[in-house]
Design brief:
Shape: globular
Number of strands: 6
Structural class: alpha+beta
Number of domains: 1
Largest sheet: 3 strands, antiparallel
Strand content: 15-25%
Distance between the termini: 14 Å
Mean pLDDT: 81
Number of helices: 7
Length: 180
C-alpha cells in the first residue's frame, strides 16, 4: 500500500545543484556549451504542450506523491515513473515523449558531475514549475520555439494553458486523473 504524501519543494539538494550549475555557467573556462547558434535563415520549430504531455506530467507527479521511496530533488527513470502503464500501447505517446516536458522547465535531467555540466541519460526529476503546474497554481505557455532540442523562447501572447484545460481537450477530467 502506498502512502499519500503532500508534494512540496524546499531548498534542498536541487537548489544547491542549481547554484553550482549557475557558477559553472558563469566561469570563463567552463566546459558548459551555450545553446547552439541558429544557422542563418534557420527557423525555430513551434512545439505544443499537448494534453498527452500533461498526462505524463501528472503520472510523474503522482509517482513522487504516492511512492514511499520517491523524494523531490531525486531523479528517476521512465520505467519508474510509468510502471503501471509502460507495457500498454495505448499510452505510447505519453511514455515515449515525456522528456519533451523539459522544453517548458516542468522536468529536468539528472546532473552527474559537480564540476562539469553533464546529465545522466534517461533520468529526470520534476521541477517546482512542474509541481505548480500540476497543482493548478501556474499557467504555462502553450508553445515553445525549439531548435536542436533546445527551447529558445516561448510564445507568451495569451497562449498560457492550465493543466485542467489541456486535459479537457481530450475529454479527461483533472480530478479523475489526479486521484486515480
Amino acid at each position: 500500500m502506498t502512502k499519500n504524501k503532500e508534494v512540496k519543494v524546499s531548498k534542498d539538494m536541487r537548489g544547491e545543484l542549481n547554484e553550482a550549475q549557475e557558477e559553472l555557467i558563469n566561469k570563463q573556462d567552463s566546459q558548459y556549451q551555450k545553446p547552439p547558434t541558429l544557422p542563418k535563415g534557420q527557423k525555430l520549430s513551434k512545439k505544443e504542450l499537448t494534453p498527452d504531455l500533461c498526462v505524463a506530467l501528472i503520472f510523474i507527479y503522482k509517482f513522487y506523491r504516492h511512492n514511499d521511496n520517491a523524494e523531490i530533488g531525486q531523479y528517476y527513470s521512465r520505467k519508474e515513473f510509468f510502471t503501471d502503464i509502460l507495457s500498454d500501447k495505448e499510452y505510447n505517446n505519453i511514455t515515449k515523449h515525456y522528456h519533451r516536458l523539459k522544453w517548458w522547465g516542468l522536468i529536468e535531467p539528472m546532473p552527474t558531475d559537480p564540476d562539469v555540466i553533464k546529465y545522466k541519460k534517461g533520468y529526470w526529476g520534476i521541477t517546482e514549475t512542474g509541481i505548480g503546474f500540476v497543482q493548478r497554481e501556474l499557467g504555462i505557455p502553450k508553445y515553445a520555439l525549439v531548435y536542436n532540442d533546445f527551447p529558445y523562447e516561448h510564445i507568451t501572447d495569451e497562449n498560457y494553458i492550465m493543466i485542467d484545460n489541456a486535459l479537457k481537450e481530450i475529454g479527461i477530467e483533472y480530478s479523475e486523473l489526479i486521484t486515480e
